Amino acid sequence: MNQTKYVREPVVAGYFYPDNPVELTRLLDELFTKNPHGPGRKPVVNRERIRGVVGYISPHAGYIYSGPVAAHAYLSLAETGLPETIIIIGTNHTGLGSLVSIYPGGKWITPLGELIVDSELGERISKYSELAELDTDAHLDEHSVEVQLPFIQYVYGNRVKILPIVVGLHTVETAQDLARAIKKSIDETNRDVVIIASSDFNHYEPYEVTKRKDLEAIDYIIKFDTEGFYRVIVEKHITICGPGGIMTLIEYTKLIGGEKKKAELLKYANSGDTSNYRNGVVGYASIKFFIEK
How many domains, in total, are found in the chain? Predict the structure, then answer.
């Protein structure tokens, strides 16, 4: 397979985030340092690689809405140093492509430059998963992975590889299958990997309703109760758009962390906080998954 032929151009630059690199960098600066819902300081990459952080949940809406919340995840990520590869598990908003779609190789482009895809790791995951396939169609117009990339570049430049995965089948069994395949592939390659599960939380209900629903779902996430999380979002109609990635991160952390697994809510807010329009809001959370020493 000729990996160099795959080049994924940005599709939501100028819409979800600025398409001008100077404006984009300025906005990212402000999300970290000046926005009242951001962390209040710029990320500084630790010179030493501190292992133990498994991954994060990070939102993927327009930066003016969800960017301050995402900044909390990336500030924390920077403090762990530089990993080899960041797996970004997005959600399939378009219906295109395979049920679990791994981008085959090549590079992704944003206004801040290029990021190389870890094709070897992707091929192994597709080999060991019963559902995942190497596929570009699901990524053509999908924003959930793309929106994470300028944050990654703001922190690391082009020094890290990425592996975009888009999930279209959001079940516990799918998450377990993908988590097992990721673990086996990382074990074989000895990759130093962090996972980003790209997801927004409840959509387009009043502020207090969304906050109540989201915090109930987050409680199951923090407890690593994948089945409970899936059940509550179905029964309570909590319209989280990336539950497959979230459940995969939960299951993967359970596989490698055992009794030492931990999860921490870094920041919760919704678009009612960031835009002051509270009649129909979208929820956002940054959640850290790690293994306690």
Answer: 1
DSSP conformation class of 3: G
Per-residue pLDDT for 4 more than 70? no
CA 65, CA 48: separation in Å to the nearest integer?
32
219: left (phi over 0), alpha (psi -120 to 50) or beta: alpha
- What are the Cα distances from residue 43, in Å, to 46, 89, 102, 272? 9, 22, 29, 26
Distances (CA, A) of 249 to 34, 87, 197, 289: 30, 10, 7, 8
The CATH number that applies at residue 34 is 3.40.830.10
Torsion sign (Cα): 240, 207, 221, 37: positive
pLDDT in tens, 186-219: 999 999 999 999 999 999 999 999 999 999 999 9
Domain that holds residue 115: 3-291
- Measured in Å, how far apart are the chain's first and last C-alpha atoms? 41
Residue 2 pLDDT > 70: no
- Taking the CB of residue 52, how many other CB atoms lie within 10 A of it? 12
Residue with tokens 């990382």: 186
Please give the structure tokens belonging to residue 266: 């870094």
Whole-model pTM?
A: 0.96
The predicted-structure confidence for 33-90, as pLDDT tens digits, reads as follows 999 999 999 999 999 999 999 999 999 999 999 999 999 999 999 999 999 999 999 9
Question: Residue written as tokens 């133990």?
Answer: 52
CB 17 within 8 A of CB 150: yes
